[in-house]
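Whether sequence alone determines local backbone shape is best considered at the level of individual chains. For completeness, the protein is quoted in full, as a sequence line and a line of structure tokens:
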Amino acid sequence: MRLLVTNDDGIGCVFLHELVRALIAADHKVFVVAPKLEQSWTGASKSRHRPVRSEAVDLGLGCPAWAVDGTPSDCVNIGIDHLLPEKPEAVISGINVGLNASLGFILGSGTVAGACEGALHGLPGIAVSQSLDVAVYERMKDDPGSPDQALLDILRSSARHAARLAPALAANTPCRSFIVHNLNFPYPCSDQAEVRRTIPARVMLPGLFSPQPENGAHQLVFKLGEDTSPESPLTDRSALEAGFISHTVLDFSKLGSI
């Protein structure tokens, strides 16, 4: 398939690079259009009040790539309309550094938003995220270019799953359907990990910012939130905790259905 790949952690993120390598190894035609800098938790925002610049870059991955000084939504819009030499058949966003499981995370995720932007262009969208424990997550956010070998092995296993699952999901998703597939890989993830269909966990996320200090600048404080989900059906968070790959179908055509 012809695939546009983006993310919200930035074009230099090794999580993105491993996904691209796995997709190319599976004989897909990949184009990368990703943010120049990290855009985590920007949701579906677009750069309305300033010009957005794009430039071709060589990632050493064997595929065309562009860096955009904007959001994941900017990347998908600009990529499809102006950069790619041919229209992609799907948009894959990730692999995200950390999970994007539960309503509290899905609604704010730049990674999920990149896949949603594909759906708004009439294409299947697939978001791909790697769950991590808190210590590993914080280390990767501080130094995203240097995972240790254990994490790299987990990441490559997740990337192989993504290269198998995401194109197959895209091929079976009708165009103009407003459907986004949200895949989350457990930590650790092995080649034997099984997939489970899930619903988004009902996670509340209050108090995400610090009190106002003397300089007046509130700071974001990462939290996993409070899970208020019922025991069934299986949620994305529960699937990850049990070691499964979570597959949630986000069908935006059903919003407001009676």
